[in-house]
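Issue 218. Parser rejects a valid record. Input:
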Amino acid sequence: MINKALVLTYFYLLIYILLSSGVILYNKWVLSPKYFNFPFPITLTMIHMAFSGTVAFFLIRVFKVVAPVKMTFEIYATCVVPISAFFASSLWFGNTAYLHISVAFIQMLKALMPVATFFMGVMCGTDKPRCDVFLNMVLVSVGVVISSYGEIHFNIVGTVYQVTGILAEALRLVLTQVLLQKKGLSLNPITSLYYIAPCSFVFLFVPWCLLEKPAMEVSQIQFNFWIFFSNALCALALNLSIFLVIGRTGAVTVRVAGVLKDWILIALSTVVFPESTITGLNIIGYAIALCGVVTYNYIKVKDGRAPQLPSDNIQERLTKDWKSERKSSNIFIPNISNDTNGGSNFNSSELNDEEAPLISSSRLSHIGRQLSNSSSQRS
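Output the parser choked on:
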């Protein structure tokens, strides 16, 4: 007999992998001078932010799908604004890298994300220096260096852009943990886009006026509405798919799916973009880096399970889960503790996607499970 729940889970994972790979390949195709030839990454990112913010506005203010957060000016100025700045920067620099280096090499460089997040966390006091994690970070770094050395079309400008985007994303992750979580603010994916997307758009407007607006005025490139509409729609769908996948499966499965997606994306990129060439040294270096990433994921998952005492019986665990479900329905959670996430530092943005959710995976899991359960009841 076919297990419908299992089939639905694998279907969600397939949708996530296809959308994640599709958005990255689509962005590369749009920005590449050899294909659609729209070499304006800031403009493309602003289109994504404007579209996501508009959709979130209609869902919250017009259709009343979710309730808005009672956002104060202090929280917006001290939390949302800096997080939006780094979120916009990470997307800007990441998309600019597509102009200079291949998708395959970008995915290999993204293996540095855990390294950047770990060191930023240590510097900001959200993570503790650990010898085992540090050794894994060294292994990842060595693998990325080997992979870079084996890159045939190595471009220093594109590499700097991508690494800068990774650093900005790491700072954004740490700020989210330090600012939002400590203030007890919980945002679902729709409210995240509602508050952060417009602010990110404003941050991108200044560099757009200085760097891209003058070039666009003299450019002969024509604006194709359907291309950019479908591109922005795919980016929005990716946000929602990650939200549903984590809610349906949990963080561990998504980590495994993310690793599988990276390999599939590297292979697909060489087919879609024949000019991208992968060498044996690329593969060896990325395999070494991936070993470090997988080990790092294992450590984080193990740490996430550590606070759970063996003496807890099933009834107590069910009671804790029920209380967590009740808390997740509230926008503000007073007196939030540092171990709300069960000790796990996993963040959905570690999936290395172009448009990743702005909230932690524990919140995604609670909200997503509620949504998937309600959809199962309707069917």
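Fixed in the parser; the record now loads. The radius of gyration is 21 Å.
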